[in-house]
Amino acid sequence: MIQWFLSRTVRRAVELRQHVKRLVNEQRDLLTADAVERITNEGAALQAAIASRCSKTDIEDAITKFIQVADRWLKPYPNPGFRDNVKEFFVAATVILAFTTFFLQLTKIPTGSMQPTLFGITETDLRSEPDFQMPGFLTRVARYWMWGVSYYRVTAKEDGVVKEVFPPRFILPFIKRQEIKVGNQSYAIWLPPDDLRKRTGLREGQSFRAGEDIIRARVVSGDHLLVDRLTYNFRRPQRGEIIVFKTKGIPGLAQDQLYIKRMVALPGEKVRIGNDQHLRIDGIRLDAATPRFENVYSFAEHGEWRYIGHVNQAIANRLTQSLLAPLYPDETHERTVESDRYLAMGDNTLNSLDSRYWDGLPEQNVIGKCWFVYWPFTDRFGWGTR
């Protein structure tokens, strides 16, 4: 070991022996028994020269003999550089896949149900802002890579009606292209946002005049996260943690997707939602002093985006007239969480399809918790998400 650190010649000899040993294993079905024996014996001689602390010259001689024997018997590979690159690529891909399967997984926030803690994809139809000047190419590139802001503009070449919006397709890995047909013209949108129609206000049957903007929109990417998949192998989720889970088997949800919500209740607990927009767990009211709920119950004012706690259906009827919490019609209604399930709710409680609607999520659906926001570089970047 000391020799390996102190001598470059010893390091070269060790690496050469390991490399040839790997090639012998790969070509064992092509080599004769005599060839395998000769290479193995010469490798043993090189190892003996290293172990006996021979001089640098003796080790160099042993390396030369080893190379001569290996070159004589080993089969040459065509395009060895390309082959090594492909091998390294697959090794790297395997390592990344294993890492994201067992330790950290990449995911993104698709909706606004966790705002303002975490942001999903948001959009602005700029056709209603005629004075807005679309930024130049370099500015657009910088804004996208820094803040996830994309701009889309398509102008009609002739009069026509939107006939069809084709689904996006991959041209190259990570590069999508989507087409829309307006009149007799087809228009391509590169790197389109998810759900192009919703994000840009486009719908079939719309008519446009030549020179009019068909699409003129700004789309901000949702927060991209690293999900900790390791911790929950050793303990259960704790109240208030932001968890990521699969929707498989949850009625009323699109299947085989990943959702992200805040875990609010554990198996066996009794849950009510008060008219004061606070949860009661086993009769105990959660508030801003409850760990991980400091912001959820902050109820900030002054016209800024604010948290409003959790609402039952009676309050939802008063505020939005939306069917948000059919399982919690008013503050007197109490439900007990099943033994193998959790309750999870979004922080944007007036725009969240969560356990107030579809009840508990199966324990086995939970894959991890929010660990790090790695992009875009907003004030939510890092470990600060609560």
Tags for this model:
alpha+beta; 386 residues; 19 strands; five-stranded antiparallel beta sheet; seven-stranded antiparallel beta sheet; Umud Fragment, subunit A
Structure in words:
With 386 residues, the protein is α+β, with helices and mostly antiparallel strands. The protein has 3 domains: 2-73; 122-220, no CATH class; 224-375, Umud Fragment, subunit A (Ribbon), CATH 2.10.109. Helix content is 29%, strand content 25%. It contains 9 helices and 19 strands. The protein has helices at residues 2-6, 8-27, 33-51, 56-73, 80-102, 137-147, 196-200, 313-319, 355-358; strands spanning 104-108, 122-125, 149-155, 160-165, 169-172, 175-182, 185-190, 207-208, 213-220, 224-228, 242-246, 258-265, 270-273, 279-281, 284-285, 335-336, 341-345, 361-362, 366-375. It has a 7-stranded antiparallel β-sheet. Strand 13 and strand 14 form a beta hairpin. The protein starts with a helix and ends in an 11-residue tail after the last strand. The mean pLDDT is 88.
